[in-house]
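User: Run a structure prediction on this.
Assistant: Running it now.
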Amino acid sequence: MSRIGKKPIAIPGGVEIKVAGSTVSVKGPLGKLDWSLMEGVDVAVSNGQVVVGRSSDDRQLRALHGLTRAELSNMIQGVTKGYERSLEITGVGYKAQVQGRTLSFNVGYINPVIYQVPIGIDVKVDKQTLINVKGVDKRLVGQVAADLRAIKPPDVYKQKGIRYAGEVLRKKEGKTGK
């Protein structure tokens, strides 16, 4: 059995889990998330716990078993505490501005780069150089943070660009003169 998949998940107070056919819905104080179950994986809710099972022991189902358990755990944490990812903008004149659901970046290109924030994600810009991405879906928060970082990845020589908060970059040496 999958070591991750066989662990039961405790359901905290204020969280409601419903299994309808092949869909699991998790509802909590911060929002609601849905997950489609793969064929051969089943979810049971009893005694304040969620238990994930599988119908056979083949390799793909073992992987899906652990994946489903991890996703449900992430969903429960997302609707209770939420997820947050922070990014820093480094560089002279580099800045970001938020206007409604649109982010505008001035990061060394001729025109500002415009990014539409997906529904379910809250973005806050502090001091024009710190970006906080918050949401209930762990995968979506990580993807939005990765998309924002990809607008101007950090340069290995001058270390200018958008990076995750606390990300350690290895600085390369420039050319040496003769």
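DSSP finds two helices and 13 strands in the chain.
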